[in-house]
Amino acid sequence: MTVNPEERAAMARLMQIMEGQTPAPVSTSQRASHNSADPVILAGPGQVTDREIHAMADVLRRLEGAVNNTSRDMIHESFRDHQLQEALITEQTSDGVKIGVYTIQQGLDEGRLAGKQFYSVINRATGETLAHELSLYEAAHGLVRLLNNGKFFNSLEVRKLLEAESGYTSHKIDAVRFHRMMRKAERAGDTDKANLMETRKQASMDRAMVAKADLKRLYQNI
Asked: What is the pLDDT of residues 46-65, one digit of tens each?
């Protein structure tokens, strides 16, 4: 927004008057810059002319327009930038987060083998739970992001994401079970079985980490 010297001077003079100061009268050069067809108004100390009021109002109108244009540009940009669009429609809740028409709800189960924390994705419009007990937040958030971007629940992108999540959860549960069997064999003095269970536990943990890495790669590319 451009402000010409006359408008700037008028604004400065008005601000002085509003602050209780007494600005100098409008100079001859300032009056001479007016259109010769306009009536000449001599403003004494502390007086405001109609021209100054109009100049100030014009500046304020243009300032408001600039602000509105910035807001409009931000909204338009949000449709091109999925992350910005998501940020504009995200709302924190007591047990999760709302993103568009979907809610990611966090649950807690101390006895859950794949980890005590889990996440569910719920359609707020229908109340339907689309995914339950997801072990990784990236899986829940990625699912919501895909759905908000127009992907269907049975789309290839969604299936790949949920398959990686399922693989991670399954291998994590196997690792916990093998760990328990290993401890039981150790208490029974069965060294061979204990070593076998430890090997299987480590293999399951390795598979779980591979599935987790795959899921995070998919998530980052959404």
From this structure: 455 666 666 666 666 666 66
